[in-house]
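question for whoever is on the cluster today: can someone run the full assembly for these? two chains, 584 residues total. i dont have access anymore since they changed the login thing
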Amino acid sequence: MRLKKLISQCRKQDREAQEKLYREYADKLFVLCLKYAGNYEEAKDILQDGFIKIFQNIAQFRGKGTFEGWMTRIMINTALKKYQNRSVFLSIEEEWVEEPEIEDDEELLSLNVLIDLVQELPERYRLVFNLYSLDGYSHKEIAEMLNITEGTSKSNLARARIKLKEKIEDHRTKNLKPVYVEK
Amino acid sequence: MSKSKKIGELYRERFEDARLEPPKECWDAISAALPPEKGQKRRVVPLWISLGGVAAALAFIFLLNFDRTNSVPSEPFVVSPETEKPAEIDKLQEETILRETEKNLPQEKMSGVVVSEKVEENEFSSQTPNSLETIITVSKLRQGSVMLKEATISSSQGGLWKTFPHEKNMPESIFEAKEALLLAFSEEKKEKEPEPEKVSRFSISPKAGAIYADQMGSNGNSPGGSGLTMTYGMNLEYRISDKIRLRTGYGKLDLQYRSQELNYDSAVDYGFVGRTGNLPRWEQASLEQEMAYVEIPVEMEFQIIEGKLGLNLIGGMSSFWLQENSMSLEGSGGSYEEGKAGNLRGLSFSTNLGVGLSYDLFRGMEWNLEPMFKYQWNTYTHDTNLRPYILGVYSGIRFQF
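^ ran it for u. tokens below:
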């Protein structure tokens, strides 16, 4: 009920309501921006552009699905728009590679570390990995969104996983604590 | 005890319900970019500042167009390997690519890297209107080494689609090398992307109006009001911004004044020139005066209410070019005199103020109704306390093109 009222006030360009809505969702959406962006500054840009679009188009939200889902889609579209035109997607006929596994170490692989590592991926890998693995889009949907083929989407996902695994292992090697063995 | 997980699963778990506070300046930037709150007072910009701004904007647009016209490339688009070679290619020459590939490829073909780009919609080359071939040759590769024989890049429906032959057999470093090359070319591709569709800023409005002309003040013998007469013309408009339009045009204005029971004395100079007729010295006469002007307005429209039914505030000025000037006096006994008013200037001006109602009929077409007040000045050749004005209601259809 409170959200409905807030949306209604935002439609009237009520600045106080807009700020409340922003405070409510910015933290969560910023994580989304960070994982799609190449760095912190780009994530800030996506967040700002995305929220401006949200407030400009809030009248078009008809209540189909959740409001958070609607905002998430706008934010993802904003990120894709930013990188889509400058990303090169390679079409590679690769044999299917099984998704690699890694040792989960919560202390070593914190949220910030995982964000840093995914941001280091080339844009084309990062976009496909986020869309497929984290935001649940199918290869067919990704192909339409990025104007590529499903095969390209699959091959870029496979390479993204391999690259991420390499980066995680590299990070682990660099940050492993020395082990002392008592004699 | 750490557990083995798939990469996607690990990321999903960490990102689920994760929150990180964005920096404070984000909200400030968003807030500044949003339209002002409803009910917030808008600043009223003085007319002279607005007109100055319009003049500057028009000059800027003119200069931009002029510059664009002069900067059309006349030479076909060619990338020189020595001068335009991207940093990535330099890297290719020196690093792992060469080592990896020396052993795999025939010696006689090891002359360099050749990349051909075929672009269907070529905007740059006048010599090859349907295709553009850009060749980059890396000539400094060490003898006996090559890693890519050929890569063909083609564009399709706005997306970039790239294929490489024999991909599976290529070592990892070659794969990386191709990525670097493609990235270099994608920068070029970006520059060739079509511009977004331009929204037309010009419109024309044929219009007609009913006007009433009169003058404030009196000199005893001044004629009465004109009665209702018609005007017609055409406006050309340029939309400077979403809220502001600048317009000029052409209008034909016919004015008729008639005064009854005028005490006429032919010995007095009424500014009546070119007399012909037989009116006696003292006479009760009626005066009829006809004037025709061509009006050239320069006005600005400020949009106050936007929507299907819109409201605009209109301000500006008009120049009036005298085209016809005739007067006649008719006495009670059938006597008359004809001539023209000698105190009218050939060029006079008015300050205009009005409101415009608009109604969207179709896309790019709207109906207008504009009640206007025009206060005339510089009308008479000599000082007088007469201040002519025009009240008019104009209507027309605006076509955007």
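summary bc i know u wont read the tokens: The longest helix of chain A spans residues 150-175. Chain A has two domains: 2-82, 111-175.
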